[in-house]
Amino acid sequence: MLFNSLSFLFHFLLFYTIYYFVSYRIRKYLLLAFGIYFYSKWNVNATILLLLSVAFNYSLARFLSQLSGKKRKVLFVFAIFTNLFYLGAFKYFIFVWELFSDLRIGFGFPGLTWKPEILLPIGISFYTFHNISYLIEVYDERILPCKSFFTFAIYDLFFPLLLLGPIERPGNLIPQIESEQTITKEKVWNGISLFIWGVFIKSTIADPFSRYVEIHSPNFDSLEPGILWIVAPVIAFQVYADFFGYSLCAMGLAEMMGFQLMNNFKRPFFASNPSLFWSKWHISLSTWLRDYVYIKLGGNRHGFFRENINLMVVWFLAGIWHGAGYGFLIWGVYLGLCLVFYRSLKHYGFVKESNHIQFILGIFLTFYSFSLGLLLFRIQSPMETKLILENLSHLPNVSSIPIMVLLTIIPLLAFDLWQEWKDTDRPNFFISSKPFSFLIMFFFLFLWFSLFSPFGKQDFFYFQF
């Protein structure tokens, strides 16, 4: 069930009508039941795998709290390794198999003709990282393990963030599950506004843009010279509207139910450097990698050279996390190099934050470096990197610039600019005093685009991760 579908809307309204009027104790069982049902609509077998993961991690965390010394450390390592193996088996085994086949061909041996078929559960990267953060927090004694299996199961099966995150921290979500949810008029209206805006930008920006991207970047060797300079920023806005749209929907649904999820995006396209960009884009993943990988590796405590090595390791892992393929590996290395390059310029005094010209130029360069990096997602083999570079070696034809695309992104940019001016920590429409005027405006906007847009619905971009 897509958030931007009548099927989901019908099921959620039925669920929410019951949820709103029952006690918070019954709400827990409703949340768990709806989470299982929601995920099962995608694949029943994947739901069984998820429930086994829930039981496994709940039990291990309980055992961890009862052990000490070497036994505790061994069990913790086993728990983390098992989760990573679980993720790797379903997500990376086929890629490793294909890589091994390519290596055989490279050394003059015949490639492997048989290819295994393995189910890839939707959202496996998100809920696996969910579980790893829970185990780390329990091991470091920052939180106590859940006494109730139902509480932990809801944490893992909380349907707004089950498929695409954000990767919510256990210290934030679990206490909210254990306590009574207070549903106020303000939370309901804020939740509705976030959900509507999320569906709106997904349906009216991300979906049409994905059609444009599919037309202009299927085969890199047959494209108009220089067209990728135009396609790249369209991809950036497509991914942003898609993933930001999902995150807004998740935040809105949670707020309507009395929960508050972390904000996953904070106007990233206004960032003036790569470091700032990654503190505003996919915040739950960036902070996860910072806290559980970068800092564990030593962070910036062992000198500038070691700090940059740690960054490269983090972003190599970030590339692998996004997907199993050559493009994702190259993308991770590319992002790491962008960060190292910027931090080196800053370290040696070439960047001055107070310089307004550098600030404006920094926004443009940061956006374009990220946009060009997204082209790497579509690489199927290392040789396609050369084709991308050859295309970018030409200047684009001005007549190829899609004017409708530029006009379409205006509402999204206007919203982000408004939030930047208000300096909000979370997306906010400030509608608690005048909700009906907002909803009427959105109803007509959404109805217009829904009726007259020639594009059909698309899966959310991050489902592949």
UniProtKB/TrEMBL annotation:
<dbReference type="Pfam" id="PF03062">
    <property type="entry name" value="MBOAT"/>
</dbReference>
<feature type="transmembrane region" description="Helical">
    <location>
        <begin position="148"/>
        <end position="167"/>
    </location>
</feature>
<dbReference type="InterPro" id="IPR051085">
    <property type="entry name" value="MB_O-acyltransferase"/>
</dbReference>
<comment type="similarity">
    <text>Belongs to the membrane-bound acyltransferase family.</text>
</comment>
<feature type="transmembrane region" description="Helical">
    <location>
        <begin position="357"/>
        <end position="377"/>
    </location>
</feature>
<dbReference type="InterPro" id="IPR024194">
    <property type="entry name" value="Ac/AlaTfrase_AlgI/DltB"/>
</dbReference>
<protein>
    <submittedName>
        <fullName>MBOAT family protein</fullName>
    </submittedName>
</protein>
<feature type="transmembrane region" description="Helical">
    <location>
        <begin position="436"/>
        <end position="455"/>
    </location>
</feature>
<feature type="transmembrane region" description="Helical">
    <location>
        <begin position="6"/>
        <end position="22"/>
    </location>
</feature>
<feature type="transmembrane region" description="Helical">
    <location>
        <begin position="397"/>
        <end position="415"/>
    </location>
</feature>
<dbReference type="InterPro" id="IPR004299">
    <property type="entry name" value="MBOAT_fam"/>
</dbReference>
<keyword id="KW-0472">Membrane</keyword>
<feature type="transmembrane region" description="Helical">
    <location>
        <begin position="74"/>
        <end position="97"/>
    </location>
</feature>
<keyword id="KW-0012">Acyltransferase</keyword>
<keyword id="KW-0812">Transmembrane</keyword>
<keyword id="KW-1133">Transmembrane helix</keyword>
<dbReference type="InterPro" id="IPR028362">
    <property type="entry name" value="AlgI"/>
</dbReference>
<keyword id="KW-0808">Transferase</keyword>
<feature type="transmembrane region" description="Helical">
    <location>
        <begin position="226"/>
        <end position="254"/>
    </location>
</feature>
<keyword id="KW-1003">Cell membrane</keyword>
<feature type="transmembrane region" description="Helical">
    <location>
        <begin position="118"/>
        <end position="136"/>
    </location>
</feature>
